Structure formats: structure tokens, C-alpha cells
Amino acid sequence: xxPLDRRRDFLxxxxxxxxxxxxxxxxxxxxxxxxxPPPLPDARPLAPKPPHFAAKARSVIFLFMEGGPxxxxxxxxxxxxxxxxxxxxxxxxxxxxxxxxxxxxxxxWASRQTFRKHGQSGLEFSSLLPHMASVADAWCMVRSAHxxxxxxxxxxxxxxxxxxxxxRPAMGAWLWYGLGSASQNLPGFVALxxxxxxxxxxxxxxxxxxxxxxxxxxxxxxxxxxxYLSNPPGLGSDEQRERLxxxxxxxxxxxxxxxxxxxxxxxxxxxxxxRMQTAAPELLDxxxxxxxxxxxxGADQDNAFARNCLLARRMVERGVRFVLCSHASWDDxxxxxxxxxKNCRLVDQPSAALIKDLRQRGLLDDTIVxxxxxxxxxxxxxxxxPGREEATGRDHHPxxxxxxxxxxxxxxxxxxxxxxxxxxxxxEDKVEVHxxxxxxxxxxxxxxxxxxxxxxxxxxxxxxxxxxxxxxMLV
Amino acid sequence: MRVxxxxxxxxxxxxxxPVDFVRDVEPLFQKRCSGCHGAAxxxxxxxLDRKADALRGGxxxxxxxxxxxxxxxxxxxxxxxxxxxxPPAGPRLTAAEVDVLRRWIDSGAPWxxxxxxxxxxxxxxxxxxxxxxxRPAVPAVRNANWPRNPIDRFVLARLxxxxxxxxxxxxxxxxIRRLHLDLTGLPPAPEASSGxxxxxxxxxxxxxxxxxxxxxxxxxxxxxxxxxGYEQDQFRPHAWRYRDWVIRAxxxxxPFDQFTVQQIAGDLLPGSxxxxxxxxxxxxxxxxxxxxxxxTEQLRTEQVADxxxxxxxxxxxxxxxxxxxxxxxxxxxxxxDFYQLYAFFNSADEVNHLAPAEGEMGPYLQQRPEYERRFRxxxxxxxxxxxxxxxxxxxxxxxxxPAARLEWTQVADYVKVYQDHGHAILHTPAERRTFRQAHxxxxxxLKYPGPLASWPEAxxxxxxxxxxxxxQLDADxxxxxxxxxxxxxxxxxxxxxxxxxxxxxxxxxxxxxxxxALPPLPPGAPRNRLSLARWLVGRDQPLTARVTVNxxxxxxxxxxxxxxxxxxxTRGDLPSHPELLDWLAAEFxxxxxxxxxxxxxxxxSATYRQSSRTREDxxxxxxxxxxxxxxxxxxxxxxxxxxxxxxxSGLLHPSIGGRSFFPPMPVGLLKxxxxxxxxxxxxxxxxxxxxxxxxxxxxVPHPQRMNFDAPDTLTTCSRRQRSTTPLxxxxxxxxxxxxxxxxxxxxxxxxxxxxxxxxLTRVVELALSRPPQADEMALLTRYYVRKxxxxxxxxxxxxxxxxxxxxADLDPAEASAWAGVASVVLNLDExxxxx
Lengths: 475, 835
Hints:
The complex is a heterodimer of chains A (475) and B (835). With 475 residues, chain A is of the alpha/beta class. Helices cover 33% and strands 17% of the residues of chain A. Chain A has 2 domains: 1-34, no CATH class; 59-229 and 290-473, Alkaline Phosphatase, subunit A (3-Layer(aba) Sandwich), CATH 3.40.720. Chain A is built from 14 helices and 17 strands. Among the domains of chain B are: 14-106, no CATH class; 362-480, no CATH class; 736-834, no CATH class. In chain B, helix 20 (435-447) packs across helix 21 (463-476) and helix 34 (795-801) crosses helix 35. Chain B is flat and about 110 Å long. At the A-B interface, helix 1, strand 6, helix 9 and helix 10 of A face helix 18, helix 28, helix 29, helix 30 and helix 33 of B.
């Protein structure tokens, strides 16, 4: 082997350790690569980017209650309903109502839950949610949320992507695009799922028309957490490393042939992939958590949502920008009493634990937790079997429902907005879905009208052509 | 007090005076209204500077009712009586001004006749894309040796003007591989990696894989998929019939004008054949929802609007959908234009033609008697004859009076949403229903008996069990393929402009017509889809040919002459080579819309044949390669990456056309689906077919496709992205399908070659269509030796890594080492790139 070959050999073997710049520099000085293109640029397209102004929060966890929980039975007590229980609404109130299944002539069904004030703020929760009530002072309870979509799929797309039409990027993709990711080992946008599958499925973590590198990565609850994360059978980590080094070496040689900077991005992508292979299993390894923490969430029980909440904390701790934790389904058209009871049992404790855990680790200050569905449920009953209250449910209700938020920049222990005596419509401070989005972006240091992407000849944004920052929700 | 009296007196005197249009009204219109409702702009379709237009009104209808100010919308608008105020900005009209309008209208809105000829037709827009296509003269160039055909003269003239030299031609192997990937989407076999480019191109243009490659681009535009899209996202078992039609059309080089006419209106052609009707499957790719509580009319209007938008994007390169809610903000497309196009599609209904594919009829007919016997068995076991008629009566009663009994209204909704034409069948007398209709209604009855389930008469009937039995029975009967198509309904629907795009707010009625900014329909042409289709490919319609040749250019250079291939409007990019674009468009039309000829013309040019090597001299000057001083390295589309791996390894099953197959799918992903449907992975050679045929489930798109930027198929896609992500790396490194390809490639080179260096050479040749260079050989050898050593130290490792080796008569350790080498090569940037 000639000295030159030895040097090349050394360089190729050590290509990862030694900067590419040094590699080409040495080769050029040896006269070996006279026409070599300049050193490979450092390609980190997903690196953090500065916000528009100083941010209060840097991460978001959306506890998405898919299907639409009943605000009447959880957050928005309506004592006046008792007088109307079992009766039809007067003609005047019925005129403008439109529902998915039931007709406006359906009967009022007062909540069977008991409500109590909690904490210093006196926020009201029904007895179905004792744990969330125990952190009452952390929440900003928006009782006047309003959507214009009364079916699940468009409703969910509006809540997550700002439009009922398919093809728009989800919130997490917008944030990743706008702010980059603080993690060099994990994707900036992760989607977790518990319960049964969702209506809008991948629509809730799509990158839409944004470049696909901002696509949310679904972590599956069974099988591999990320598609193709594990090595092929029998291939250890050191062998994977060797494989990557061979690929890198050949790619660098090809860069010399072509001068194409895209090869640098490809090499960087392989490096991040390898780091993800180590970081993701570490992330998912809950044995690192104390017994107390596991018990706090209830993650020691068979509860996928509890596990996902704990994972969400571990993700924001590691710099993930946006975590979507969906829980399905709250869509209790029938048997609402037992259905909601079951969902609350699964969701209540982990939701509260997430708040407590983030707070005790000092993460709540720069993490926003959102809790809510794509809409709420009607104050009117959906009667499947007349005379059997156990079988009764409620229909979709986008006109007035409750969303909860907590953390970075959000005013704690507050109620925003008010609904009318029967919970049919918003009486004060209507908060549209786009207003929620605008407020959220504001907390993250982004002006919602300036976070745009050009597509099909115009600038698109998460808030479409609407959205106002809701000052009452802010600290 | 006196002042007030005086003022009141003056006002009274003024009021007494009759209103004069020219003196009092017209100046008011000019001052306060004509900015938005004058000659230049007509927001909401309203124009107040000409009598006929003003009295006709805007999209929402008339605003002036002569003689009736009280009933005139104009008065309500200027007094902000209905929420909207006009003018929207600036001071309100004064009481006196409002009064002038009121008295003018009450007196019959007199408006003197005058010559208004000047503004009869809108002036033709100045935007370049709307100008007629003329064939420009081919420019002269100094370096007459470089051009191979007229394309090159246009490109070189510009380069010479800029003082930039073109790049040298790509070496022969690179060019051959480029041609294979561009024309057929498959890498060349090593034996075909050299030779004359002309012969190669001619051969590939005639290869059956040509149709597959170019169909894929068209299917992106058609938003082709194998499922409904929304919510339940049911499978579409017959979607492939349209895909096959597209592949065949490209393979037989169906002239692009006929290709257009058949897809837009094949059902309306005289003597329309099944093939013509199949082409209208283009419009059957719209999303469908089966969500309970759905408003079916809303869904239908969404579908029609999507058809307009898709035709606009695919043929006209316009963002017509922007004009759905209001006049287009940037392009000369009014909301009226949108709904006039909408009217062409508004009376087209979805139909499925029963059209058994070859080999289906025999097994079906054989089993049909048994099927009918068992079907009758179910009818009697679940007392359908006795119980279904009262059920039908109740559901019909609920449809007639939804508020009466809500439990039944819900059942009526289910019948509507879950069964196509459910209510129509329900209202067809039982004796006039076809067997299929009767079967379908019974199926819904068993699924949703509603309150009848608890009637005493129905005691002991297990409806859900009956439904499951029927489902099983249906599943067991061999299916007959259908052709999803469009058909014109007997009584056309009326079309209204939807105010703000809301189907619940119909405005004025409009008829079918083409956009005013483009050449009109020929005089006397019937206003139907067939005329629209022929108009799209008319010689004087400037967009279709430009848009189409630009898209072909985009596929062969990575970037169109108009970079925004989906938008030729004023917000799109300007063409980099406007004369070349027009020359190609003229050439394309004058050749009889000969698609293969167009492709051939481009791939034979010197421009296309250039090396793709990055030029340091142009990096800052022309980073996007708009000057075309070189070719472009292009990462392959998702489908071709998998196809290439299958081809290199020899696993590819190259059969053309047919049903979709089910590729392996990570189990975790199937769990996010609304209903975890059975995803039965195809077996045998089916599994190794080209990715074009892989079943595309809209709500659970395959990760390999998504990782590499395949479109989501929800809306039309004219231009794919080319991203580079870590998920792509994981995909190529660890996906079992790619792992399998690496093992098959290893087995192949071990069978075909004996020596180390010969085997290494063979791996590289099969994957990259070129021999390895010395430094690459050295690196691969080192990797191989290292891996081989590791496997020798741990003999069990080879068996774990390559369990199938022994069965293939291979030494597991040796085979695993070669599988490692193969996987390294299949992961290279070069492998997934067209150079």
C-alpha cells in the first residue's frame, strides 16, 4: 500500500470522526483530489430557529380527547337545565340548531354529575374528574370554545390543521417548520395514540403541503414505535454503525464525483437516523422512571394513555416541539354515563399527573398542555332506547364547548367565556378554533399572521384568514 | 329653534325635487361604489356603471327592485340593515344620500339609455399564459455543433446570451441509466447499461413499462387511491380499472386530445364504449364520506367542486378553487366562472358499470345458484319477508316526518349514509327492485333493525348474526369487477353560485360555460361536458398544451420551464424559456398531441443529455439550474425506489396491470385506522409487483410511500417534493422489504459470480448500472472482510441474520456478509438518484 493509499484508507475509515473539511483538505494537498468540490456543508435543516418575539413556551402537549367529551358533564355546570329536564326546547331556541344525528326537537337532558369548586381559583369540575380538579389552579378553562364543524373528521381537521379540508399541515408541523427542533436525536413532532383508532388518522400529524421532513412521526403503541426503527434481525448496533460508515464513505466518494450538496443532507439524515435508533428506545424505556412517578401517572397499570402522558413529558424534556396524545373515543351517542365514566377513569389521573410532574421538574413554565376534543356534546339527549337512561347519550355540539390549557404563558386558575343557561351557545367571549391557534402560537413566540408557507400561488397559515390572540387566556 | 325650522324647510324643498339619475345617483355610484363595482372590478358580480348590469344585480341576485326601495337589497346594504354594510370602509352614506337612492328606486329607477358598446366583452387579460400559443422561430446560435434538435437552440441561445457554456454530455452509462429510469422507471440490467442512446430511447418508448412510469405522474394529478378517504375510509375494490386504462393509454400512445376527451366526457361520446366510460374514472377519485349524520348534498357539492378544481389544475394549470368562495384574488377567474364550470359537472352522477374482467365470469356463474340458495336461507331464517316490510314503512314514515319519532329518523339516516342510493331503493316498490337492490336493502335492514329489534314480533331474531352471515356469504361469492364512471342524469340539476362557497347559500343561477378570460366555446356547441372536453384541447386554448409539455419537462429535468407546474396564473412563476415552452406546445399540438413523440424529442436533445455534475462556476449564479447549463441529479420518487430494489435483486414481478396488491405494512400503523380492517399481505409473486400497483389506503398510507414524498392523494398533485429525512434512512436500512431485497441481491451475485472482486463488481453493476471504481472496491472489500470475520467468530449470527440462506443452498455466514454488502449499496444516495 502506497503512503497515499494508506492516508486515504485512514481517512475513509475515520471519516466520521474526522471532519469532512479536513478530509478534502488533506486529499487536495496530497494532489489526489485536484478537482474536488468544496467540503461537504453541514446540513441540519431541522435545527432550532428563532421565534418572531420572545417566547413563553417552547413545547406543546395536546391531550386530544377524540370524539368530543361532554362539557355539560365535566366542566360547565348548568343548574338551570334541571328545570327543563326531559322537555323539548321552546320553538324560539330551536330555530337555528343543527346537529349531526338528533333533531332540534330532542329533549333536554340535565347532567347527572355533581360539580364542586376546587382550589383557590374555585374552578368547577364534576366528580368524574377528581384528579384534574386537584390541579384546578393550573388550568385556564375556556368554556366558550366554538367550532363550525359538527362531524368528526372535518372537526378534527379544523382543530388540528385549521381547516376542515384535507391536505393542510397539522399544528405540530407548523411549529416544527416555524421553530425547528431542539432535539438532535428525536423528531420535532410526535403523535401518540390510545384507545381505538381515530377518525382523521394521519390527518392529525400530517405535514400537508409543508416539506415532508416536518411530518409528525407516529410512535406506535404496539410493534415498533417508529416504522423501521429496529435493525434487521441479528444486526447489532456496532454492525449497524459499520454499515453506516461504509455508506457514508461511499456517499462521500460520490460527492466528489458529483459535487451535489444534497449528498451532505443525505449523510446528515443517516446520522440522525442512527441517533434516533439509540434515543428512541432510551426514550421509551420507562424503567428509568421512579416507582413514585409511574404510580403518579398510573403508568404502572394497564393504561396506554397514562404511558403516553409520561412519554410526552420525557419527549418535551428531550426537546421535542409538539406531542400529540390522542385518546379515543368520547363519542358517546349512547350509554354516555358509563362511557364517560370509563374514559375519565383512564384519562383523569394521567392528565393531572402530567401537570404535576411537569411542574415539579420546572417544565410547566415552558410547556403548554391542551386538553379537549374537536367539539363538545349537546345538552339535548340522544335517545336510542326510550325510557332507558343508561342507553342515553348526547350528540356532537360544536356551538359551545370547553377546552383546558395550562402552562407556559397561559393564565392559570382562570375561566374564560360563558355559555347560556342551557349550554346551547356561547354567551360571552366566544373563542373560535382559530383564536385558540393564534393564542397558542403567541405563547410560542410566533405571530400567527406571519407564520406562512407559500403554496399554490398564495401564502397559507394555520389560522387561515382568521384568528385573534385571546388576551384573557394569557398571563 | 328657527335654525332647525329653516333646515327642515330646505330639506323638504330638496326632498320635493324629483331625483335625476345623471345629476344625483350616478355621481354617488361613481364616488362610493365604482371602486369595487365598476368597470375594473365587479366584486360579488355586481357592476353599477352600466344599466343592464346594475339592474341584473350580483351573485346573490338583484339589488335594485325598480319601484320598490323597501324591497331593494341596495337600500338594506347602504343602511347596514342586514349585518353587511356598504361601502365597507369610509364614512356611511348620509341620510340625504340614502334618501336619494330610495326615491330614485321608488320612482322606478329610471336610467337613461346610452351607448354602452365599449365594454361588451372583457379585454383579454395581459398575463402571458392566456396569450395564444404561437410557434416562435428557432433562434440562431454561435456554436452550431452543440444543438441536436431545435430545443437545444432555444437553450443555447439563452446560454450564449448569458455567457455560460453548456455542460459536457453525460457518459454513456449514466445516460443509458437516466433513460431507463426516466422512460420506464426501472434501472437497466447490466447487459443493457451500454449502447447507443437513440436505440435505447426508441426501445424504451415501446416498452410496456413506459406506460407504468408515465401513468404514475398522471395518477398523481388524478388523486388516484384505493379507498374512500374520509372517516371510515372504505376500500374501493374497482378503482384499479381506471389505473389500467391510464397505463394502456400511455402504452398505446393515445393522442393527448383523445386522452383528455375520454376522461372528461367519455360517457357522452357517440357510441361510447366501456373503455370510454372507464376513462371517466378520473372523476371518481374524489373523496367520499360515510360519516353518520353527513349531509349528502354537502358531500356531493364538495365532490363537484373538487372535480372543477382538479380539471383546472390538471389541464389548465389554474387554481380555480380560489374562485369557489369569491372572485379569484389574483387571476382573471370570477366566481361566476367557477360555477359555470361547476355546471358542466353538476348533472353528472356516479355510476358503476358491471364489467367483469377476464376470467371472472366462470367462477361467478358456477357459484351463483348456490349463493342464491343460501341467500334465500338467510331470508327465511331471519324472517325477512315478514319483518322487513313493516321496518320499511317505519323508515319511510320517518323520512317523511323526521321530527315525529327520532329513533326511526336515526335508522333513516343510516340507510342513507351507509348504503349508496339507500333512500331511492327504499322508495322503489319491492316488486320493481333488482336482485341487487333488494339484497342491499335487506343487508341494511339486518344491520340497522332499529326499534323493531325490540318489537314482540321480532322476538328471538338475532339480527346482527343474520347480518354477519350475509356478509360472509357475499364475501364467499367470487366478485365481478365493476367500472366506476360518470353518467349524465336525465333531468339536469340547476346550478347556482354559492355565496361565500356555502352550498346552503345559493345565489343567482348560472349555466355551463368556460371562463370569460379564455377563448369561448365554438358557436352552437352544446353546453355539455363533451364540448368542455373538446374545448380543453382546442388549438386556440392556450393553457392545456403549455401545461402538459411543461409537466413532461418537469419529469425529465426535475423542474418545469414554469417551476410552478400547478399554477400558470399570475402568482405562478414566469417561464424560464418562454419561447421554448411555446415551441414545444405548438409542436405537441401540431403533431396531433403525440405524447411519445414529445418525450422522444426532449430525451434526444443535447440539453437532456448533459452531465448533471454540479458546476462550481454556476453555484451562486444559477443554483436552481434555470439556465439548463447542466442536467439535474434527482432523487427517485417513492415508487421507483422500491421498484429499483426489486429489480436489482431480481425479485421484481413485472406483470402489467390488474388489481392492487397488499404490500407488507408495519402492524403498529394499522392500529391507528378507524377500523382495523384486515390487511392481508399478498403472497407469492404478487407481492413483488411494481409499487404503482400497491393498494393505497388513504387514511393509512404506506410509510415507505410517505417517507419518500408520494402524494397523499387527497387532492390533485402536480409536483412532488424531494425531501431528505432520517425516516428515509431508517426505511432503507431496516424495512423488511428492503432487507429482503438485499438478501435476494446477495443470493443472486453469489449464484452468478464466484470471485470476491467479481461479486463486488456484480453487486454494484446490478444496483448502479456501472462498475465500481478502485476506491469504492477498496471500501466495500474492507466492509465485507470485517463483516465476514465477525460472522466467523459467531457462527449462529449468520443464521440469525439470513435464516433463508440454508434453504437457498448458501452458507449462512457468507450469505449474510454479502447481504450486508448488498444493503450498503442499496442505501447509497446514488442508488436512489437519477444522475
